[in-house]
Amino acid sequence: MSQRSIAVVPRGVLVLFAVGLAAQIGLKASAPPPRAAAEDLGPAPSIAALRLASFGDPVALGKALMLYLQAFDYQSGSKVPYRDLDYDRLEAWLARILELDPSGQYPLLAASRLYAEVPVEAKQRSMLEFVYRQYLLDPNRRWPWLAHATAIAKHRLHDLPLALRYARAIQRYAVADNVPLWARQMEIFILEDMNELETARLIIGGYLQSGRVKDPAELRFLDERLKQLEALTAAKIPGAN
Amino acid sequence: MPIVASLARATLLEAVRNRLLWLAVVVVVIAFGLAQFLNQVAITESREIQTALLAAPLRVAAVFIVAVFVITSMVRELSDKVTELLLSLPAPRSAYFFGKFAGYAMLASILALLCALPLVPFANSQGLVLWTLSLICELLIVTAMSLFCVVSFAQVVPAFAAVAGFYLLSRSMAAMQIIAGAPLQDPTLTDRVVNAVVNLIALLLPALDSMTQTTWLLESGPSVSTLGSVLGQTVLYLVLICSAALFDLYRKNF
Asked: pTM for the whole thing?
């Protein structure tokens, strides 16, 4: 269908269009920008309701919900401190998102690197426990977040037994080849920090004997570490050597 | 003008003969039944659950019915060459446009009132009045947008896709603006560009996300100033979309 020239359009229509456009832009530009408030974070819907709402595509809904959740933390113009969020609700949302998208790493990244770093110890601990519980469901993929949780427990909370529990879980359950040496050895270093040298020595010895260590550099490193620990242990026990 | 009134009456008659109002009644009854069923399931807040689960689907259903009816009716008229016949009458094209728009607007208002009926036992009266007026405004915007799209595209699928996209985008724009303006790190150039584009699109869309809120039915109801802003937005957007549709209609060679 061909078009006629603009000249056939009555001038009143053009004026009305220009006025309408300018007024619409003016109205929207003068309106305050939309903002989310921390207290607005509602309870997480049930997983059944979310699955229904996903129309058979839970991963896409999980990703979208993560962005929605993120909008409660950081808003255009002003940052709402994470500590203002209701952490029970936050945990429920993160858990639902992980149920929708179990292979997604975003919720655990947010939990361990954002929400667990608030200056409120109770909230930090609850988020670390959340990461720990979720880690146990898929250790080979989720170990980096528990490793970060271990670091927070050790360096921020100064709670070595908690850090040890997390590090031990990594050592025990994260058995995939791609789990690096440093992550698997966190337990040993924390035991050293706790001055439990004998236990650390036994763990390295057992680790070497298990045959799980294949890399020559890793073997050499562990061997040297074992010798150092043996020397330290001997120095601590009077009459040894 | 008599031609505007005649066209409006004919459009409304078409809706009645298409059994559109019966369809609306059936939708309302089904929604009411569903809400009653869910009321039996709910342990607490049953009135709120009933109201919310009636209001939200009815709002979307009304928008869907209006958009589909406007688009299919206009396309059928174009295919049957009725549009050409009507445009050959000694009246400006704007009379044809406003006649059709008036007919669809009346239908939209009737639909909004039908949707409000099942909410009467559950919602507070002031909130329900404002909700209904806001739904009429929302349906008028959708009517104008459907007319604009069908005049521009002259086919059902592209016109309906454009209206659906417009409606969904308008309702989720505020959330998108918050997300776009919330990078976790320092915003990069790409973040700023995306943010600017989202804000630019938001300027051109009506604030449908702040219209016809279910919360108005549950709590004490919004102030009259809320209705003022809804009406203001509706008038402005109708001027914009109707003039854009008229621009397209005048340029079209039939």
From this structure: 0.69
